[in-house]
Amino acid sequence: MNSRIEDYALISDLETAAMVGRNGSIDWLCLPRFDSPACLAALLGTADNGFWRVSPVARGPCTRRAYRPDTLVLESEWETGSGSVRVTDFMPPRGRLPCVVRVVEGLSGSVAMRSELRLRFHQGRVVPWIRVTDRCTVAVAGPDAVWLNADGPVRAPDGADSAVRDPTVRDSTARDSTARDSTARDSTVLDLTVQAGRRLALTLVWSPSHLPELPAPLSVPAETVLKETTDFWRHWAARCRYQGPWREAVVRSLITLKALTYAPTGGIIAAPTTSLPGVLGGERNWDHRFCWLRDSTLTLSCLLRSGYRDEAAAWLDWLVRAIAGDPADLQTVYGVGGQRLLPETEAPWLAGYEGSRPVRFGNSAVSQFQLDVYGEVLDTLHLSLRAGIPMPAHVWSLVEALMGHLLRHWREPDKGLWQVRGPARQFVHSKVLAWVAADRALRMGELLGRNGSSGEWRAMRDEVHRQVCREGWDGEQGSFVQSYGSPVLDASALLIPRLGFLPARDERVRGTVRAMRGLNHAGFIRRYAPGGRGVHGVDGMRGSEGAFVACSLWYADALAATGHAERAREAFERVLAVRNDVGLLAEQWDPDAGRQLGNAPQAFSHIALVETAFALSSAPSPSRRSPAASDRHRSGSPRAGRSEARTPS
Predict the structure, then answer these.
(1) Most buried of 37, 108, 122, 440 (most Cβ within 10 A)?
(2) 64-104, pLDDT tens digit by residue?
(3) Distance (Å, whole) CA 479 – CA 472
(4) Do the beta carbons of residue 433 and residue 398 sit within 8 Å?
(5) For strand 187-195 and strand 172-174, is the pairing parallel, antiparallel, or unpaired?
């Protein structure tokens, strides 16, 4: 049985990440990069697809857990009949090789603990060869080697090798016939007993399998690495400029965004996971371990206004490198290094999260035509120019190339913001972004003193605006809709005032915000209307899905912009209430089941949270209750958000 998505916490070294459950089990880990094949994949299958559990022998969920304030260092505590224990999990920001450190500390009494590591390389499929050395256990399969070391006395199950001494450690490769846990097959199992005041660290390090020497991270004391990691995160978090009433939630979201950053290139992934479903048991399962251009402007804005200029500049540098080439080849998604080929494959050997199949690796959205990305790129360049971020010397040539392509193709249908797998359509949001592209190109020309093509661009901008207001408006509903000629509502229309297409005071914007009651799901906003049990007419997929977290936050923004500050805060605090116990949000929320859905943690959700917090902190503040209560995490019982839900109107 899979843990709930909201049961997982994130640790990261800024090049890859691990998902740690409340039961002390790491069920997802890709090494050495975010987009590398998983070596722990129980999240998408069973225990035999790989996990690393460190917990009391009796197992069970921890009694409490939390990140150390302003860090990505996770502390989980168990209270047992014989005593209490804490496990501190973290990944040091990458030096040479990726490693996971798990420090076991006795708090009271004496607690019998067990570490069980079951590695399965190549997406939870390949059982490694395991050998025991005088210092470590080493697991090898193909190009990968994983080393496991303990810095104190441990023993194998059933008392074998029980005389292991510090610092030389022996461990056992447990087989069906020797381990207490009869399900342990080709696992490394270590037993230890911790008493109050005693600590022991377990360190896992990945290295290329052709390197025979002991990895350097194993020679650094765990206490030193823990202090360095804690200091790194606290110094980074202290740079946050937000000082409003939701600071704790904003800082946690920014730390999460930083954790999803691939430091060598500056690329920011959408999520560290793949194939966590939009509907349990369904097929809406996508790989989000890549970088989306649709997030580019919001990401840049979020970083700049929060005080993280270096990260914003690195993100811009990544974007400019990634999109280099013919504008006709512009993609909506790239790899963390800017790579273009992300072939989508399926993994039939993985049962899927709660039976949600297929499990996918890679993403075929790379081949889709999405008109909106041209506007996203030009909006990002314009924002960077205004912010004074150093721009590449060829930036104006890039602007001209993008606009030249767009002038020829903006009238074509596309796959839209949501990357539908149904037929291409004349999506309203895509056309609005075509308008944004022309508008920002003109503004950049004014800033740079370049206006050679301004006549054509201005004519295009005006034509797109007239067309959207004519073809994208539904007079009966009093709202902009998803695509030309369709009555279907789409939450992306909430972005119209933010993008500057129409002012918030325009009655068409106000009407669109009012119409969003049609996408309401127990106080949260769907991205568009559900499709029922059959194939959805828009996206070509079966079944429904949860409410999109980012869309619910866009709704709060739009409410604030149209003068409904109190209702905006209520909508925002509903989202805060469904974060998990350590402040993380997935892509979606299911109000009926009270569960997070989709890949997690989701950058799009956390970026939107930060942007909304800034927007509401600057909005007029009517008399209201303190936000402190909503800023406390409610999960373990995320259903608390349901009782506060109110139908948008």
Answers:
(1) 440
(2) 999 999 999 999 999 999 999 999 999 999 878 999 999 99
(3) 9
(4) no
(5) antiparallel
